[in-house]
Amino acid sequence: MSDLPEYVLDRVFNAPRPLVWKAWTQPDLLARWYGPNVETVIHKFELKPGGVWLNEMKMSGMSDLSRMEFTEVVPEEKLVWHHSSTDANWDVISNPRMHDWPRVLLTTVTFDDRGDTTAVRLVWTPFNASSAEIDCFAQMMEGFGGGWESGYAIMDDLLAELQAQGSSG
């Protein structure tokens, strides 16, 4: 298909698909696990093709701002978005801390119903990236798992809490 590097993370959650979908798509729940060990503020969340998710991660007296533009939303099955760093006006910019980081990442998250569990696959790929951006992404891929797995560990607890409360979606 392409020679672009892809970061793929597969994870099975001990919760039914409607609940895992809810954790990914309900802003108050998403903010609890997305960006582990930082304060996550979701300024806007329009879950529809063409909709945007404006996200701020506050850490160490500074903020990391991101803009995600949804390109595909299939309820309980698939989310696809373009993920970019932004300035304070939510305009897409190069990552201020990593010059050669891709300006845009294509993010695809799929949800596979496995009865009482849900398999989630996250795929990150540089989008319309320069050679330097592709190389930077490829070199950094090994370190991606720590952040996502930390967030997913928080999501495990969140899903258990929601199931204990009787929330199913």
What do these coordinates show?
- A hairpin with a 6-residue loop joins β2 and β3 (52-59).
- This protein has four helices and eight strands.
- It is 28% helix and 39% strand.
- The protein has helices at residues 17-25, 27-33, 131-140, 144-164, and strands spanning 7-13, 39-45, 52-59, 62-74, 78-86, 92-93, 105-114, 117-126.
- With 169 residues, the chain is α+β, with helices and mostly antiparallel strands.
- It has a single domain (7-164), classed as START domain (Alpha-D-Glucose-1,6-Bisphosphate, Chain A, domain 4), CATH 3.30.530.
- Strands 1, 2, 3, 4, 5, 6, 7 and 8 form an eight-stranded antiparallel beta sheet that branches.
- It is globular.
Keywords, separated by commas or semicolons:
alpha+beta; 8 strands; 169 residues; 4 helices; Alpha-D-Glucose-1,6-Bisphosphate, Chain A, domain 4
**CATH uppermost class:** Alpha Beta
- Helix content percent band: 25-40%
Low-confidence stretches: none
- Strand segment count: 8
Would you identify the CATH architecture? Answer: 2-Layer Sandwich
Q: What's the N-to-C terminus distance?
A: 36 Å
Overall structural class, as computed from helix and strand content, comes to alpha+beta
Do you know the CATH topology? Alpha-D-Glucose-1,6-Bisphosphate, Chain A, domain 4
The major beta sheet can be summarized as: 8 strands, antiparallel
**Overall morphology:** globular
- The portion of residues forming beta strands comes to 35-45%
Mean pLDDT: 92
CATH superfamily: START domain
Q: Please, how many domains?
A: 1
Total number of helical segments? 4
Secondary-structure element pattern, one letter each: EHHEEEEEEEHH
Radius of gyration, rounded?
Answer: 16 Å
